[in-house]
Amino acid sequence: MLLPPFTLEGVLPVGDYQMNFDELRESYLVTGRDVQSGSWDCDWRRHLVLNLEVLMNQLWQVGIDRIFINGSFVEEKDHPNDIDGYFECNLRDLASGNLERDLNAVD
Hints:
Layout: H1 21-26, H2 28-31, H3 42-61, E1 67-70, E2 84-87, H4 91-96, H5 98-106
Antiparallel strand pairs: 1-2
């Protein structure tokens, strides 16, 4: 999937953009291709995506598949500190501690 270009404010346009990890790694969010920056930190952004992939694989293993990333990683910022995000889960699983237990078992 192709991402739309950053807005004039340097952020992705509002919306959800489904991507697999290969698409994310090849996107301008990681490569900086066509981004107006001379110091886009591709290596750091690749590192962040590797860590994201580990976390998402753990979430998938416990049945969570609605995962969203945002924050400065999806902004026109050369070196974001991290990738912000959230996921949707069953409230009962969260409140009971079952989700935490299952994630700890995977880790």
